[in-house]
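Q: Got a minute? One more chain.
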Amino acid sequence: MPIRLFLIVLLGAFSLSACVSSKKFKTAQQDYSKLQERYKLLETENNDCGEEKRILLKQKEMLEREKALLAARIKELQEQVTYVKDNNNQTLKQLESLSVISTQQAESIKKSMENLGIKDAYIQNIQQQMSYKDSLNMALVINLKGAIGNLADEDINIKVDKGVVYVDISDKLLFKSGSYDITERAKEVLGKVALVLKNQPELEFMVEGHTDGVPYAGSGVISDNWDLSAMRATTVVRLLQKKYGLDPARMVAAGRGEYRPVADNATKEGRAANRRTRIVVLPQLDQFYKLLEKQ
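A: Always. Here it is, folded:
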């Protein structure tokens, strides 16, 4: 073989060999790059797994603490349940012991409740009767004031006190000083009072005589203020009976003397206020007692 041809063949073989090695190298480089990328990806995933592991460990610790707290709470609740059961058992035993008494007394309690209802109705009835009586008293006062007219309060005073009607007539209007003889003016006033009382035949009343604290200085059948007050009361009652026709069974005459004063006897005005004749419309106790007997 000529040398020139040999050299050409040799050079061609060498070139062919160089081309093959370059392709392998490039392929190896590409494989290496892929491996590096894969490595980085795995390293990142590994780091992520480590972070997740730390988070899971913390969550585990928290769950364990919560589990311990729940276990303690469960134990506490179990103790409470046990206490309530024991207490309920004790209460049931007490109720069982009481149930016998309750059964035996049930009828008695029922009757007591019924009696309470009756008593409540009874009290309401009494209250209604008292209100009715108060209304009648006020009507009586209005009638008396209307009949008597515009006399000054110092001469005649009509009032209701604690459910009782009082008519106070001054001494100067009814009698002369130290006397039990009724004046003509007094007869006119007592006639008007008698007219109102006559229209109320169910009413009873008491006529009271009152004096001041000055001792009686007269003579005759009167010896002291007791006698004077009593004589004045009987004089008024007698006049109401004989002149104005009031039933004597409805009237009471009483002498109070000086012992029920309404003012101070140390002053002139006080003594004048104490010298008075009082007509007291008596409460109808018999009707009240009849009301009680009905219950």
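A: The first strand starts at residue 156 and ends at 161.
Q: Perfect, thanks.
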